[in-house]
Design goal:
Length: about 325
């Protein structure tokens, strides 16, 4: 088993390449994410270098995948041998952009747009139990659920949101000339104007469309899956980056916007995990046998007492109060 180094390179550009490789490695730990965010906040130059690499990578998505794979798998020049893998990757990504210009996939102006300083940039973070709504300069509204961390960047030709964690509903002002992107790990959502919800739990991402349509893509660059979603459709990307699409009750998924959570014949383990996102004093399952029990219901996200009472009324459960104000659930004997 291999582990990531405990430190990143000193030079901002090398460090940016290092962190980009770690973020997209599929083995990015919570501890690394904390160090990564500290590095980004420590100096504006760090953030600028990382964003430049990320925008180059976004540009490569416009190339045909076969061409991109061939370029990145080609033998490296002698001058590059002996350098670390992160530096080789950065050189390769830059070369991709140059070939894209020559091949007509990107114009020179388009690449400059992608590498320019944002016209608008803001980071929003909500704590446990906190929800908030933020209106953007174009009139788009981002409503954030609890424990959410995202960054908004507006450029001349596009609007971008990086969802690091949590959940948000996006009411996007229509503008076909300035598409709106949400990036959540390996998942990318592209729209021009619509209302949709994105939730990210580590590398698991769920997208639900309330109105309009969105394009969802997921997976590594050489094997990305794509799906068009319209109102009432949902897509889920698992940790292995597989993408599944289904129709579903989007109003239930977004019930948190009205202060509710909806359960539809779900395992008790999942129900407790979901309620604990909102409760200041968490509920614990003290008996593993409880995981098999299932229930349905609609509950207020801040009404833990009503939730516990409903469990006792519907399931063979005993509730034991803890000194910290939380509750332990066990099976009735």
């Amino acid at each position: 088993m291999t582990t990531a180094p405990s430190h990143s390179p000193d030079a901002a550009r090398d460090a940016a390449a290092y962190w980009f490789a770690r973020v997209h490695s599929g083995k990015f730990t919570a501890a690394e994410r904390e160090r990564f965010e500290q590095w980004r906040r420590a100096d504006s130059g760090n953030e600028r270098e990382y964003r430049a690499i990320d925008e180059i990578w976004q540009a490569t998505r416009l190339l045909p995948e076969d061409d991109l794979r061939e370029l990145l798998e080609a033998p490296e020049p002698a001058s590059a041998r002996g350098r670390n893998a992160r530096r080789r990757w950065l050189i390769g990504a830059s070369a991709v952009c140059g070939i894209a210009v020559v091949g007509g996939a990107l114009t020179h102006g388009r690449i400059l747009d992608m590498l320019e300083t944002p016209l608008h940039e803001a980071r929003y973070v909500t704590a446990r139990g906190e929800q908030r709504s933020e209106r953007q300069p174009d009139g788009s509204v981002i409503q954030m659920n609890v424990s959410t961390d995202l960054v908004v960047r507006y450029y001349a030709k596009r609007r971008s949101v990086e969802l690091a964690s949590g959940e948000a509903t996006f009411e996007v002002a229509g503008n076909a000339e300035r598409p709106f992107f949400v990036e959540a790990g390996s998942v990318s959502v592209r729209v021009t104007g619509t209302v949709f919800n994105v939730r990210r739990d580590e590398e698991r991402v769920a997208v639900a469309v309330q109105s309009g349509s969105v394009e969802v893509s997921s997976g590594r660059w050489w094997n990305r899956e794509r799906a068009m979603l319209t109102a009432g459709m949902m897509a889920r990307s698992q940790a292995d980056r597989t993408l599944s699409v289904e129709t579903g009750d989007v109003s239930a998924v977004t019930a948190w916007r009205q202060g509710k959570v909806v359960f539809q014949d779900q395992p008790l383990e999942d129900m407790v995990r979901e309620m604990n996102r909102y409760l200041s004093r968490p509920i614990h399952l003290a008996d593993s046998k409880l995981k098999r029990l299932r229930m349905a219901g609609v509950f207020g996200i801040e009404d833990g007492e009503a939730f516990l009472q409903a469990l006792q009324n519907s399931l063979p459960i005993t509730v034991q109060r803890r000194p910290d104000g939380g509750a332990d659930l066990s099976l009735q004997r």
